[in-house]
Amino acid sequence: MRLDNYLNEEDNIDVIKRKCRILLNIYKYTRKYFYRGTRNPERFKLIVPRQDRNPMSTPLVVHEFLDKLFIDKFGWKPRSSGVFVSPNEREAKAYGPISKHSVVFLATDPFKVIWSPQVEDLFVFLNGNGIIRDEKLLTDYQKKRICKIVDTYIEGSLDDALMIGKNEVMFKCNGYYLVNKVDMINLI
Fold this sequence. Notes:
Helix content is 40%, strand content 13%. It has 8 helices and 6 strands. It has helices at 3-19, 21-30, 60-74, 78-81, 89-93, 122-128, 140-150, 158-164; strands spanning 83-85, 103-107, 111-115, 154-155, 169-173, 176-180. Helix 3 packs across helix 7. The longest helix is centred in the first third of the chain and has 17 residues, at 3-19.
């Protein structure tokens, strides 16, 4: 490795340590990580989240209804502007990393977080319980079921989310880094 590459890597590590203190401290304390699936992991690159995310599989009517419920409850639209992560490494890998190492998620400070202790993956949960259909409109019954599920979501409690170890977590942040698991040794 050339010296200038090494120096840039060291600079990036210092920047990440400074910008991601909250999550790094949680990782250090719990010795567990949040993972994110990605097709293009770039080492130590700051990624700015989209604010207009379209659903991959969820019907648009359900996506918009969920965002409305979440904005009423938490003040932001996690389905459209959130970054989805999982404390379950295998679950995150299902969303496409091509790296031979797991990709650890590091949100920049400050951030907001919501998750449900009862829902591992919201799309899978809705689909598996017959709530999602290929319809243009939601029935009152579907809306009531979705409202009950959204009621189970909480803010914060990242230690608990990591310890349960299987629930989809939605972050609202200005930026994040994806770091190979082996690089975490230099960060915590």
